[in-house]
């Protein structure tokens, strides 16, 4: 992913040899290459524009330290701004509330919500020693409820048994009561995802949010979605008070643009990355590592 950026930059950096400071003129070619590389990587246009403007502002007049070539200095600025746009500091999961801390999973069908719910339960049990309850409100797809139950069994988390005919709100309320009585510290709620954004789905998840008052509402998005991720992110962030993002399928051949766009559009940090299908394939997201990976 982004092989292009390093490759393209290495070409133009040579043209900066001999310059003592970066100027509007001498960085133009380099910025054009960065812009093209980002567009090819499926980063949304408004995000690219903003990024280029930031790099330009930081780079122009930048005194080149004697130990660096101007090309290296520019790459340094691009690197710093990549980290900033991907999210700056690493953002931790917030669990600071009266238990159970509710985590609501939102996103389109196929984004990886159910798998990520199971992975997150495992992560919380192993890394934070939490007692976790998994709950599915996806009443439209009994297979999805069953899938979550299987995942709960695999990771050794508790699973809330749904009764036939229960509505999502009823499941949520009953699960909350169950979690309180059984002293669960975290309750992860998987929700229904449709293939596209629709009002009924947004209404349903908003009602669940209002009822459960989750400390974390995580938007789960498939890195392979590219440009489409932007529209989805916008719709979910308009409808719900998101607190963070899980970016899935980073192990695929995604061009990675979603990582840059999603934080920019939602204003919320990417907290976890899905890096494999298997249950150990979830890790805390580090913006600086992602930026290094992008630059190569
Ligand atoms: P949901 O409809 O949002 O609940 O999506 P699922 O959790 O059912 O995931 C859809 C598909 O994506 C499944 O085949 C998962 O195994 C796969 N998947 C989810 N996360 C990842 C990931 O990080 N990497 C890979 N390679 N596959 C993933």
From TrEMBL:
Residues 1-86 form the Signal recognition particle SRP54 helical bundle domain. Keywords: Cytoplasm, GTP-binding, Hydrolase, Nucleotide-binding, Ribonucleoprotein, RNA-binding, Signal recognition particle. Its EC number is 3.6.5.4. Its main location: cytoplasm. It catalyses: GTP + H2O = GDP + phosphate + H(+). Residues 99-247 form the AAA+ ATPase domain. Residues 100-296 form the SRP54-type proteins GTP-binding domain. The keyword Zinc does not apply. One of its GO terms (molecular function) is GTPase activity. Involved in targeting and insertion of nascent membrane proteins into the cytoplasmic membrane. Binds to the hydrophobic signal sequence of the ribosome-nascent chain (RNC) as it emerges from the ribosomes. The SRP-RNC complex is then targeted to the cytoplasmic membrane where it interacts with the SRP receptor FtsY. Interaction with FtsY leads to the transfer of the RNC complex to the Sec translocase for insertion into the membrane, the hydrolysis of GTP by both Ffh and FtsY, and the dissociation of the SRP-FtsY complex into the individual components. Belongs to the GTP-binding SRP family. SRP54 subfamily. Part of the signal recognition particle protein translocation system, which is composed of SRP and FtsY. SRP is a ribonucleoprotein composed of Ffh and a 4.5S RNA molecule. This is Signal recognition particle protein. It comes from Nitrosomonas ureae. The lineage of its organism: Bacteria, Pseudomonadati, Pseudomonadota, Betaproteobacteria, Nitrosomonadales. The gene is ffh.
């Amino acid at each position: 992913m982004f092989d292009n950026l390093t490759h393209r930059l290495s070409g133009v950096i040579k043209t900066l040899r001999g310059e003592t400071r970066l100027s509007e003129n001498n960085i133009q070619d380099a910025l054009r290459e960065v812009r093209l590389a980002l567009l090819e990587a499926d980063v949304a246009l408004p995000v690219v524009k903003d990024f280029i403007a930031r790099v330009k502002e930081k780079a122009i007049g930048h005194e080149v330290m004697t130990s660096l070539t101007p090309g290296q200095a520019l790459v340094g600025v691009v690197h710093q701004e990549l980290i900033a746009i991907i999210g700056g500091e690493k953002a931790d999961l917030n669990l600071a509330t009266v238990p159970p801390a509710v985590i609501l999973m939102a996103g389109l069908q196929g984004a990886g919500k159910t798998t990520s719910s199971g992975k997150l339960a495992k992560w919380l049990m192993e890394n934070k020693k939490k007692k976790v309850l998994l709950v599915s409100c996806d009443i439209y797809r009994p297979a999805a409820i069953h899938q979550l139950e299987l995942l709960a069994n695999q990771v050794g988390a508790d699973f809330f048994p749904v009764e036939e005919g229960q509505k999502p709100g009823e499941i949520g309320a009953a699960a909350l009561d169950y979690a309180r009585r059984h002293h669960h510290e975290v309750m992860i709620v998987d929700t229904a995802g449709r293939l596209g954004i629709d009002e009924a789905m947004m209404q349903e998840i908003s009602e669940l949010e209002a009822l459960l008052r989750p400390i974390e509402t995580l938007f789960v998005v498939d890195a392979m979605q590219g440009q489409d991720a932007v529209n989805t992110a916008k719709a979910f962030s308009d409808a719900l008070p998101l607190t963070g993002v899980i970016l899935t399928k980073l192990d695929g051949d995604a061009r990675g643009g979603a990582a840059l766009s999603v934080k920019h559009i939602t204003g919320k940090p990417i907290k976890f990355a899905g890096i494999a299908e298997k249950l150990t394939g979830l890790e805390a997201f580090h913006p600086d590592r992602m930026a290094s990976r992008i630059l190569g």
